[in-house]
Amino acid sequence: MKKVGIVTIYDTNNYGNRLQNYAMQEVLSKMGVEVETLRNYANTNKEDNRIIHTLKRIKNGLQRVKKIGNKRAKCFQEFDRNIEFASKELRWDNAGQFVKNYDYFVTGSDQVWNPYFDRLSKIELLEFAPPEKRISIAASFGVEKLEAKYEKECQKALNEFHAISVREQQGKQIIQQMEGISKEKEIEVVLDPTMMLTEKQWEKVMKKPKDMPQGKYILNYFLGELEEETKQYIEKMAKENNCQIIQLLDLKEKLHNTGPSEFLYLIQHAFLICTDSFHSCVFSILFQKPFIIVERKSKKNMNSRIDTLLDTFSLQDRKLKTNDIQDMKSIDYQKVFEVLEKEKMKETEWIKKALNIK
Fold first, then answer.
1. Is 190 found in the same domain as 52?
2. Are residues 120 and 11 in the same domain?
């Protein structure tokens, strides 16, 4: 049995990150692969002073718990029991010790190549492993364009990868435009691993929140700022449909203290999801829910990940334009799932070929 080590973003309490990590393990396990996630921290991925980075990691961890709250952090810890983690932490200074224990190393999915997340290091580029063991599955840069200083750091490493797949079209373009990347290097655009699992499979790790609301609700999950016109539009829809509004990231909201399991449940039971989050869109699709996307205004934000998702399933009309607000059309999920099944088959074959699974 082949053994695979996953290198992903491990040190953030983010719904999408945890759920894609779980999904990646489930997908590979079902292919008959022994798989575990290699615990790594952004602050120890560099070649610099390990003590300094360890102190930074402790400080960042305390700030993160303070920001999201103890209860929510515990919900993430509870969900982590669903993920198989390596017993030893992966660092640049000990990475060589891992090479003999795994047949392949997979980097992805999520924004493992986002330089603004203190990623795109030699760890995420798998430079500690021989080229034939390096694979990316649905990796993302998380930006529209890579600055020249970062491009130089990663083009040589990416050119040596055994197989590369990315999560969005813009990621493929970024790599193909790098100077020194072989023209023969194939870059596949694939689904985020969360979409490789069915709703029934996700229900296995769902959990009803303790403070579950009574009656219908609109779930607001926004990582960026909302314009006043959009707020008023959502409030109008809530009033017309007799719904309450749950602001999931509002610290005053009781449901703020939820983990990935509760997040899934809230999406599955919502009347409508309003979001600027990629993974909120993903699970809205998987659970066949109506959803509205508000584009995030940020130079460092990569809208391509949502654009690729919408283009794949012909759901471009889910984007809400504040200068032209109108009722959203219903979604033909039968057509969506026909495309989804084809994409899942394509990705399954790609992974099997990359991992040499018969």
1. yes
2. yes
pLDDT digits (tens, 9 = 90+) for 215-241: 999 999 999 888 898 899 999 999 999
Q: Residue 113 belongs to what domain range?
A: 3-198+341-354
Claim to verify: residue 303 and residue 228 sit in the same structural domain: yes
Percent of the chain's residues with pLDDT above 70: 89
The whole-angstrom separation of Cα 283 and Cα 192 is: 11
- pLDDT tens-digit map of 255-277: 999 999 999 999 999 999 999 99
Distance between CA atoms of residues 187 and 200, nearest Å: 31
Q: Which two tokens stand for residue 135?
A: 């694979």
100 in the same domain as 240 = no
Query: What pairing do the DSSP bridges indicate for beta strands 244-247 and 291-293?
Result: unpaired
Residues 6+ apart with CB under 8 A from 37: 5, 6, 8, 10, 21, 25, 83, 84, 85, 86
